[in-house]
Design a protein that fits this description.
Layout lengths: L3 E4 L2 H10 L18 E5 L1 H7 L14 E8 L10 E8 L1 H9 L10 E8 L11 H8 L1
Antiparallel strand pairs: 1-2, 3-4, 4-5
C-alpha cells in the first residue's frame, strides 16, 4: 500500500460502515488484502520522500479524536473507487510527528479513516431496476 498508517480497531470503521445508509458501498480492500482499518498519517509519496527506513515510530501509540463522516470523489482516473467515505480525525501528536519529518501538519485531505467505498458504475443502467419489480407486483 505504501501508506504510513496508525492501526485502529476494525470494529470502529465497520460500525460506521454499517450505519451508512448509502447504496452500493463496500468495505475498501487494498490489493488482495482483507479490510484493515487505519488512520492515514502519510501518503505513499510522502513516505517515499521521507524514506521508509527513516521512520522509527512504528509500533508506538498515538492519541486521536474522531469527527464527522464525510465523502470525497477522487480526481483522476487512477483511483480504484468512485467515492470514498471516511471518518475525519484530528491529532496533535500525529501533526507533530509529521512536522518532525518536514511535512505539513496534516496529509492532503486531513487525517482520516476510510470506512466505505463505492465502486465505479454502481449506478449505471444494467437492466436491474427496483422500479420494474414494483410495477410487476401492482
Amino acid at each position: 500500500r505504501g501508506y504510513l498508517g496508525l492501526q485502529v480497531p476494525n470494529s470502529l470503521a465497520m460500525g460506521v460502515f454499517f450505519s451508512l445508509a448509502e447504496p452500493g458501498l463496500i468495505l475498501p480492500k487494498y490489493g488482495e488484502d482483507r479490510f484493515n482499518a487505519f488512520l492515514s498519517v502519510m501518503l505513499p509519496e510522502e513516505v517515499q520522500t521521507v524514506g521508509a527506513d527513516n521512520i522509527n515510530e512504528r509500533g508506538k501509540q498515538f492519541e486521536f479524536e474522531i469527527g464527522p463522516v464525510d465523502k470525497f470523489h477522487p480526481q483522476g482516473s487512477d483511483s480504484k473507487y468512485a467515492e470514498y467515505y471516511f471518518i475525519q480525525c484530528s491529532s496533535t501528536e500525529l501533526a507533530k510527528l509529521r512536522r518532525t519529518y518536514g511535512l505539513e501538519s496534516q496529509p492532503p485531505g486531513g487525517f482520516m479513516i476510510v470506512c466505505g467505498v463505492r465502486p465505479y458504475n454502481v449506478y449505471r443502467n444494467n437492466g436491474v431496476s427496483k422500479l420494474r419489480e414494483v410495477v410487476r407486483q401492482n
